[in-house]
Amino acid sequence: MTGTELARFLDWLRSERGSEFASYQELHAWSASDLDGFWSAIAEFFAVRFHTRPTAVLGRREMPGAQWFPGATLNYAEHALAGHEGTAVSAYSQTRDRVELTWEELRDRVARARAGLQRLGVGRGDRVVAYAPNIPETLVAFLATASLGAVWASCAPEFGARSVIDRFAQVEPTVLLVVPGYTYGEKPIDRTAEVAAVRAGLPTVRHVVAIPYGAGEVPDALSWDELLAEPGDLAFDPVPFAHPLCVLFSSGTTGRPKAIVHGHGGVLMEQLKNHALSWDLRPGDRMLWFSTTAWVMWNALVGGLLVGAGIVLIDGNPVHPDVGWQWRLAEESGATVMGASPGWLMACRAAGVEPTRDHDLSRIRQIGAAGSPLPPEGYRWVAEHFPGVLLNVGSGGTDVCSGIVQGGPWQPVVEGEISGPALGVAAATFDADGKPVVGELGELVITEPMPSMPVRFWGDPDGTRYRDAYFDVYPGVWRHGDWVRFSESGSVIVAGRSDATLNRGGVRLGTAEFYGVVEELPEVTDSLVVHLEDPAGGPGELVLFVVPAPGVALDDALRGRIARELRAALSPRHVPDRIVAVPAVPRNRTGKKLELPAKRILLGAPPEEVASRDVLADPTSLDAFVELAR
């Protein structure tokens, strides 16, 4: 704790506010109840640049519609491009050689891109979208867009045209940035046909800008060099606190993707708090977290700039030429905070990777994990290989553009659990009657507003879809959609999505509990569990799908072993009615298992209505479920 940014904040609270806290629990309780006191402290401690001062911290407290920092104007990009020196961006790719930008070079390119967008007629409120990977050009275009008060949205180039149009068409963009292709591992990928289809499907686009990346050409497009051809002034248009900064899209695995609008001020405040006080990032640090431009972690990665940390951009196959590639990049870039998907950490464990033996990773102070639950074995693997390094497991997401529950320098790491609620987040668990519960599973809720809650959904003028998404069950309380359990000490277990929990005999079971047992068996590579309700009112059927390890057959002996392990580790209720082998478990591109789409297909829903293949990590992974449904 000594020497961390959180310790510096506590010292500041003591000297400037006369406030002292004996524990994280005390600090969190204050942060989640005295919203005016906590968020005004964040704004003052981090010297937020208000062009116009706010008239209050929280003008309206009720949700939805809480009003943060009324009257304030600011600009996110101004904070991201503050006067730091040294390396701001290190970019690694399987398409081209490493690229590095100093802070001065980053500021110059943003100024040039800003001037180029202005020549194209882009101004406040216009939408600029990118069908582009996690490369410096995408970062530069985002910051230039934000500097103008225009609105940003991005999709990764591995998405198919239909999925991109489903997202971008909602916001009616005027400028589209694209790449003609990229390399994934050793495989060149041509996206010129998809680019043409996306252009045809977005009639509002007036200008296309082609970034030179991968093979191929984009006809009738302005080149990236032409966009940046003329020097410009690095200026930042002041915008209201809730002015749209970016539109993030939900996964689209259960319907049309939601276009979630996040504001300049909300994202700024949340990322300043999170990145410094939880992730302990500071000037001179390096943050490495593999992400595509379609995942909220890309926005979190960019947020490292706000606290003066350099960021490491990675594009390509995350396990090419082998599963240890990212550890080599961490060594080369000097990463101090490294993010990882739980699936990748478990793959490193399974492959016998020895990261600290093979690489100098002595600068790493913290390893973050998010995107899906990390099994207890993953905690032990990190502790074994990184003694003294904080493992910070978190859960939150696109909806709040941050974490809801996570760890930090003042919190204990509890094997198999998340340390607790994040600062400023009034997280709790509600039962079906809307009453708080501790020590039992329930709905994850947020009972007080957060600055980074969405401004609105795009194309939802009266707020109906927004209210239905988060406030339909508990009026005035945000229901996040996760099924969790808080312990008496405040630690958290995320048992799965609440719409995918299993109701067996009136008892709701979390899916993550199954996976923690089944996937530790050496004979099983992956698994997915669903409960199929009986429309006639019967008990239904609990079905466990497993991907056997190479060379292993799912026979009665293995089925019996799986059942015994589940009974012993969990309960008799967790023993499935059927265990079925499948070649792959459906996951989205961030690694989350798609229980609900699989279940809907098994209950008879047409697969094309359940999930677009473009959002699947493996486009064929639902095929076995379609066959079983037949």
Automatic annotation (TrEMBL):
<dbReference type="Pfam" id="PF16177">
    <property type="entry name" value="ACAS_N"/>
</dbReference>
<dbReference type="InterPro" id="IPR045851">
    <property type="entry name" value="AMP-bd_C_sf"/>
</dbReference>
<dbReference type="InterPro" id="IPR005914">
    <property type="entry name" value="Acac_CoA_synth"/>
</dbReference>
<dbReference type="InterPro" id="IPR025110">
    <property type="entry name" value="AMP-bd_C"/>
</dbReference>
<feature type="domain" description="AMP-dependent synthetase/ligase">
    <location>
        <begin position="91"/>
        <end position="449"/>
    </location>
</feature>
<dbReference type="InterPro" id="IPR020845">
    <property type="entry name" value="AMP-binding_CS"/>
</dbReference>
<dbReference type="GO" id="GO:0005524">
    <property type="term" value="F:ATP binding"/>
</dbReference>
<keyword id="KW-0547">Nucleotide-binding</keyword>
<protein>
    <submittedName>
        <fullName>Acetoacetyl-CoA synthetase</fullName>
    </submittedName>
</protein>
<keyword id="KW-0436">Ligase</keyword>
<feature type="domain" description="AMP-binding enzyme C-terminal">
    <location>
        <begin position="518"/>
        <end position="592"/>
    </location>
</feature>
<dbReference type="GO" id="GO:0030729">
    <property type="term" value="F:acetoacetate-CoA ligase activity"/>
</dbReference>
<comment type="similarity">
    <text>Belongs to the ATP-dependent AMP-binding enzyme family.</text>
</comment>
<dbReference type="InterPro" id="IPR000873">
    <property type="entry name" value="AMP-dep_synth/lig_dom"/>
</dbReference>
<dbReference type="Pfam" id="PF13193">
    <property type="entry name" value="AMP-binding_C"/>
</dbReference>
<keyword id="KW-0067">ATP-binding</keyword>
<dbReference type="InterPro" id="IPR042099">
    <property type="entry name" value="ANL_N_sf"/>
</dbReference>
<dbReference type="GO" id="GO:0006629">
    <property type="term" value="P:lipid metabolic process"/>
</dbReference>
<dbReference type="InterPro" id="IPR032387">
    <property type="entry name" value="ACAS_N"/>
</dbReference>
<feature type="domain" description="Acetyl-coenzyme A synthetase N-terminal">
    <location>
        <begin position="24"/>
        <end position="80"/>
    </location>
</feature>
<dbReference type="Pfam" id="PF00501">
    <property type="entry name" value="AMP-binding"/>
</dbReference>
